[in-house]
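note to self — DONT lose this again. spent like an hour looking for the file last time. sequence + predicted structure for the chain T wanted, 208 res
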Amino acid sequence: MTMPTTNFGTAVGKIVKSNTHVDYVCQVYSANEVTVCPKPGDYRFGGFVSIRLEGDGEPGGQLIGVIYNTLLMNPDFGNLGPRLSPNQDLEVFTPDYLAETATLVGIIAVGWIDTTGTCHQGVPVLAATVNNPVHCLTEDELRHFHQDGAGRLCMRYVSLLMSQNNALVLPLLLNIVDRLMLLFPEQHGQLTLMRNNLAWKSVVQPVG
């Protein structure tokens, strides 16, 4: 399925590291980095994002990923001593100190869009690099990514997520299914069956 031309959704942040070929860490933009600071809803659990790739100075397509984790970095944690300056003074005299605070989100790449605009699901061939920008997918982009060539609902990345050996994967998939139910009401029965199976696994698997 070919993705329509896009102007990209809300800017979320930039890639700062990777843990594996499909597991990335994005630093959410702060107020001094962009004109419009992303809101918490823009990087919520289960949100789909695009990671713009660059190759030899030219656009190299996009990775499509889903946010599965959040980590807060705070240099004040564990510091029991008094702060000598308020935040407004720190912005002037020691801006590097405030720059150490950050919100990081984990992203699992579940597919990609090539330079022709064609969507693919599964392990991407290309990898992101440091500072690649991250944007939210629009509702239209999310729908297109989940359609095969015949326009049918497609979730080939489920096995990729299940293989991550992460306790958050089952809640993540439940979140994704709930969102797809709104985008694909005609597939409600199929998605409900899948959701019931995932909900059962989320109860039984931790015990087993």
